[in-house]
Write a structure and sequence with these properties.
Layout: H1 22-30, H2 36-40, H3 52-64, H4 69-80
Length: 86
């Protein structure tokens, strides 16, 4: 008789998971450092309603400056509202 081969009843044991390396885990959790604003500073979300046309102009401006909308607006707000120094 021909047919599918019978499955073996015995299982091949798989070794235990190696212990986690704390230094490697810390490196993974730190991220790649691409978002410096969240790691270095406390941030707070600000919601602003704008027209679709203004939103489009902002996005195009950010793209042409090789930036993100968030980076562009943070810089604009920093220029307009500088921190007062004593």
């Amino acid at each position: 008789m021909s047919g599918a081969p019978k499955k073996s009843a015995s299982r091949i044991p798989i070794g235990a998971r190696p212990p986690a390396n704390p230094q490697a885990q810390a490196w993974i959790r730190q991220g790649d450092g691409s978002d410096i604003h969240k790691g270095d500073l406390y941030t707070a979300r600000l919601t602003l309603d704008v027209t679709p046309a203004l939103r489009a102009r902002i996005k195009v401006s950010a793209f042409t400056q090789n930036s993100t909308v968030a980076e562009l607006l943070r810089a604009l707000l920093e220029r307009e509202f500088p921190e007062k120094t004593p």
